[in-house]
């Protein structure tokens, strides 16, 4: 399966609790923190919910 690189580009301050929990579940802690994950349907769905807070690129 393909891998994607997810980087947090905006703060989660003043965001809904649901978005904060989604960012934590993705493993993102602070701005410019990057994680690599498999592009499974569940991960892609989580990224879509917070796409305004992250940058995504194919690896």
From TrEMBL:
Recorded superkingdom: Bacteria
Domain Large ribosomal subunit protein uL30-like ferredoxin-like fold, first and last residues per copy: 4-54
Coiled coil region boundaries: none
Protein keywords: Ribonucleoprotein, Ribosomal protein
Entries under Gene3D superfamilies matching the protein: Ribosomal protein L30, ferredoxin-like fold domain (3.30.1390.20)
SUPFAM superfamilies found in the cross-reference section: Ribosomal protein L30p/L7e
One of the Pfam families matching this protein, by short name: Ribosomal_L30
Entry similarity comment: Belongs to the universal ribosomal protein uL30 family.
PANTHER family noted in UniProt: LARGE RIBOSOMAL SUBUNIT PROTEIN UL30M (PTHR15892:SF2), MITOCHONDRIAL RIBOSOMAL PROTEIN L30 (PTHR15892)
Protein's name in the database: Large ribosomal subunit protein uL30
Organism: Parapedobacter deserti
Gene: rpmD
